[in-house]
Design brief:
The protein is mainly alpha-helical. It contains five helices and two strands, in the order H-H-H-H-H-E-E. It has two domains: 48 residues; 49 residues, no CATH class. The protein has a two-stranded antiparallel ribbon. Helix 1 packs antiparallel against helix 2. One of its GO terms (molecular function) is RNA binding.
């Protein structure tokens, strides 16, 4: 059954996008929200992440869906990360200084860069 759903999902998403972008009344209002919803549904299916994981929660502005894509990450691991101030993940990511979180399997340890 799961295989059938996955095989039919691309066609379903294509038809949903067609429905979302069909011509509208004179000014064409009302097409963007359904189109964005279709793209978000497509991402959830492709990434095998529940749609609810995309909503902001637990200190994560964009939801937990990006973390569910990483190996060895489950909802319980993400909850542990949320308790350790997830903003530190973003602060130390780009500049090479500041706090950084190191993941080793399911263990989460904080290290300070020198």
């Amino acid at each position: 059954m799961d295989k059938i759903v996955l095989l039919l999902a691309p066609r379903l998403l294509e038809e949903l996008m067609k429905m979302a972008t069909i011509p509208r009344p004179p000014h064409g209002h009302g097409w963007l929200r359904p189109a964005i919803g279709t793209v978000e549904l497509s991402q959830s299916i492709i990434q095998a992440a529940p749609f609810s994981a995309r909503k902001a929660s637990g200190g994560f502005a964009e939801g937990i869906a990006p973390f569910l894509q990483l190996p060895h990450f489950s909802e319980s691991v993400i909850k542990k990360i949320a308790r350790k101030h997830p903003q530190e993940l973003l602060e130390g990511a780009g500049d090479g200084v500041g706090p950084m979180v190191v993941f080793s399997g399911l263990e989460v340890m904080e290290n300070q860069l020198d």
